[in-house]
Amino acid sequence: MRVIGDIGPYCLTSDGLREGPCIKDQSEEESLGYGSFKFVYGPSAGGLLESVGFEITTYGESIEKINHLPYKGRQITLSGLTIGDALLRVERINGAFTASHSISFLQAIESALEIEVPHDVVISRMAQLELERIRNNLLVIQRVLESASFLVPSFLLLQQIEEVNRAIARSCGHRYFFGANYPGGVRCELKLPSLKISDIERTLENRIFIDRLQGNGVVKDSFSIGPVARASGFKYDARLDSDFLAYRNFDLRIPTQDQGDAFSRILVRLEEIKESLRLLQELKVKPCSFTMKIRDGEGIGRVESPSGDLAYLTRVRSGHVERAYLLAPSKVNMRLFLKSMPGNIFTDFPFNWESFGIWISELEVDLE
Amino acid sequence: MNWFIKGIRMGVKTEDDYHHETKWPSRLTRVKGGEITCPTDAIGEEWKQERCIFCRACEPVFSPTGETLTPRVERSDVTFKRSFYLYPLDAGSCGGCNLELRLISSPQYDMTRFGIFFTNTPKHADALLIMGNLGKRMEEVIRRAYDVIPSPKLVILLGTCAISGGVTGIPPDIRGDVIVPGCPPTPASILDALIKAKGGDRK
């Protein structure tokens, strides 16, 4: 059994829900010695893609302790809404992970309503998740390159990200999968992006770049998820456990590394892009719809988002969402990032931060 | 190998006309009669692109044309004709606007050829570019960023959340000089808006 993360008042594990929180954060306030001081980075600082604050305790060069300060927190209400209206809000929790959020939410709803989903819908959802994974992993690598001031390869990667966005728009009508899924169907076809993966590989062979990432932000924690877990040797992937999605029929290869540092996380993401591209070539995607029978119930939906396990737990009553809980992968990853940072120096910060692929939008959302 | 030659061999090209057909978001047109329930009241007497979250609830009464949305530029300034520095500020977005904004620097769009740049400090900025709903503690951050930008300055509101709140929250309390609709706005819409705001006349 592996622990995945907190979802509302429960702890989600690979065996199902458990009462109570997973891990209690150790918050003992140890005071540092003479000469230490606190430094606030953010909320709106150059280099950060989103608004977020950090409180860093330091003696001057090395980071001794780091805390997350929430700024942009949003309250999003799902309770009492129809499934369709709730989905509109779920899609906008994290624009970069819309496919993961909407598919996980719809799976939770379908599980609550005990609906058998047609095979074509399953395949279409897998294709969306893989396209989203490719885009996100490219973005993480691009952000790390940009942090290292490797501007030419960074721009070449932005070009490829734009190619993926256009392919998503051609496939599903929207560059961020908004409206691609709806209660009772999917609207996507599949138009593959043309990517040049070998060029990214060659960039990652650069010694200067490697030196900045190796040994940076080492974290080996059995309570980790997604690429962070796989970069430290844990072969965790929700795609292997999924009963909803048909990944088991596709001989999925799960890349792992064993150093647990920022470089390992980048290597894992690069390998994932190749695997996702292979998988996409085998998928036959077309629009499909099915009927939603309305009944009351409770269900969980879980997918492997680009940053790891993402899950929804929903209760449905007379066609309306009574309550919904979210397990956002960025929440788990933020705990791991904060854990990995002490001992590093200030200039390590951006590389390590970007290598986790954390989205503040889903981390600071308050779901009601 | 030289990066420039490599880029050419890879087929990396800046697009002269960067307007790409994207169905959602794009201009909507009424194709047949009928009643619609719109979650953001974007459809009343007429279609208001600034309220629209392009959720497809109005299909098939309304249909997307694939034409890039037109930004509303209430004030532009030719002072910024040669160089226009933007300070992006995420007030509480889903991240979609942040990504689309970043992509205007991709080689396909290449914002620098129009003299548009990002800056990391509001003190060097010509415009404050706000994305997203108003987050819990962002009001003060927005006000302080706005105050330190030297005059003349412009305020650009990017995306439905920042303009009218959309479905997820309320918009920041600030008047925009440039309104860029879309959920999220496409890079083409953003670039059109920025070129107009700096006194350019490109489509």
Which chains have the largest interface? A-B, 50 and 56 residues
Q: Determine the fraction of residues in helical runs of chain A and give it as a percent range.
A: 25-40%
Contiguous uncertain segments of 5+ residues of chain B: none
C-alpha geometry of chain A = globular
**CATH class categorisation of the domain at 70-196 in chain B:** Alpha Beta
Strand content of chain B: 15-25%
CATH superfamily of chain A: Cytochrome-c3 Hydrogenase, chain B
- State the end-to-end distance of chain B: 37 Å
Strands of the widest sheet of chain A, in order across it, are 1-2-3
Give the helices and strands of chain A as they follow along the chain. Answer: EEEEEEEHHHHEEHHHHHEEEEHHHE
Please outline the major beta sheet of chain A. Answer: 3 strands, antiparallel
Say what oligomer this is: heterodimer
Name of the CATH architecture of chain A? Orthogonal Bundle
What's the number of extended β-strand segments of chain A? 14
Rg of chain A, rounded, reads 20 Å
Domain NADH:ubiquinone oxidoreductase-like 20kDa subunit (chain B): 94-196
Cofactor (chain B): [4Fe-4S] cluster
Organism (chain B): Metallosphaera prunae
Family (chain B): Belongs to the complex I 20 kDa subunit family.
